[in-house]
Amino acid sequence: MPCLDISTNVSLDGVDTDSIFSEATKAVAAIIGKPESYVMVLLKGSVSISFGGNKEAAAFAEIVSMGGINSEVKRKLIATIGSILEKKLCIPRSRFFLKVFDTTVGRNNSKM
Fold first, then answer.
1. Catalytic residue at 2?
2. Which of 13, 66, 74, 79 has its CA 20 to 30 A from that of 99?
3. Residue ranges of domains in the chain, CATH in brackets
4. Could you give phi then psi for residue 60, rounded to 5 degrees?
5. Which of 2, 4, 39, 58 is flagged as catalytic?
């Protein structure tokens, strides 16, 4: 199950968060190749964040998935989630950081 956790210093008061949840869910599912019903999205606003020494609009996100992550998927996730945050919350892509983690990396899949 992929989980996308987004924190931003932007206030979410008056923001249509439903559209952010919907677009992010669809994007993560399509890019990672998992059903939308498996995707979880968390969105936290008004978080104290300093990026580059200032508190202008910024976001930190982390995505954790059991499989489906490679370098091309990472690039697509960063670009797509960054675009959603830029469009919906006016966060410049240069002030967005995405940490991507695949829980299956490094597992020994050989049978004993």
1. yes
2. 13
3. 2-54+64-102 (3.30.429.10)
4. -125, 135
5. 2
